[in-house]
Amino acid sequence: MKFLVSADDTGAAKEVVCVRGTDTSKQDGIKPKSIINYITEPTIGLDSRIIHLLNYNFQYVITSRLDGNVSIFTIPEEDEEENKYELLKNFKIDIDEEDRPISLQKIEKLDSILVAYESCKMFIIPLIDDKFEIEPIEIKLPKDIKNLHALTINPQFENILAVGGQEQDLKVLKFFDHKLNSTIFKKKDYESKFNVEVLYSAKNVKNDHLDMRVPIWITNILFLEGTQDQFNIITSTRYGQIRIYDTKHGKKPIKDYKICEKPILKMKFANEEKTELILTNTHNLIGKYSLNKIDDHGYKLHSASAGDIYIPTPKLLGKFTGGNTGATFGIQVYEDIIAVGGLDRYLRVFDLESREVLAKVYLGVEISSLLILDEEDIDEESTKRKRQEEDDEEEIWNQLKKNK
Which GO terms describe its biological process (predicted)? Predict the structure, then answer.
């Protein structure tokens, strides 16, 4: 297995190669095949640490740093040893010192990426040639959108995105015509093709059981299946809630669940059907929840007047508990595994279904982002290639015998 993990303390990234069963927490445990620092350009350090890592179609690794640098690196070939993760291009985005990147997304329809910041600055960066000569294109958001903490592109319709943040409720935006593709960058007026239109604005939920206003602070947004005009969306909040919206059924969420007291940091789908979620929080939660199965007594509130109040929540299918402590910021689900990392400086890999720990590697650095570059053990890959080569050779000899 191969992973690329941000090293927050140094500002670099570490490539980790290991096999299933690796465990550095045990003296006699299996050790990683290699842990090597890469991606040390253009600048590194705590103030320029990597916030996002993006695998762009296995062509490039793209990083977004705290200081506004967005960099494009090569993805090395399997046996390549020299010039691994070579820097191809760096863009320095003009942001204020206190600003922070909140999202790095790909737009395959436009052969581009999109990077967004808390200040509501948002840029498209085309990747249409090896020289990357087109400078970042700033997309102006409506002035009433402020304090963003979450932004995601609809994977079904990449001209649609959703945003939210601190006292910024969910909005769905269209920012280019769905008929456009990357050929627009061959025209001189391509910047005029990006115009933001607000398609949906959510409203806050009703007051709580004490008749107090519920604060808004969206931390993650995911699109469920929908259409070009109707959207099903899930959000998580810094107050431990997840909410489900159906835009054809009004501006308030159709479901509002309280999951935990701590802020939800990351939210990912756990399966292709989008019926299960992985949630992490600022404490030690890494849990898998069902959107189809509801636990009627999932969360308990206590009211001085009414006593204990039980609130339905998505059913907890299980927790990933590899000894993790503290907040989990880096998470990726790929095929049948999930990799996570955070403040406790461990990279942990789990089987997605059984939740068994597959690998546990101490890296000595805090982690805010990671990529799974290969989910198979290197030894397994070598064995498969050898068997394939042997099968090919046998087939050639059999063919030669027939020709005789």
Answer: ribosomal large subunit biogenesis
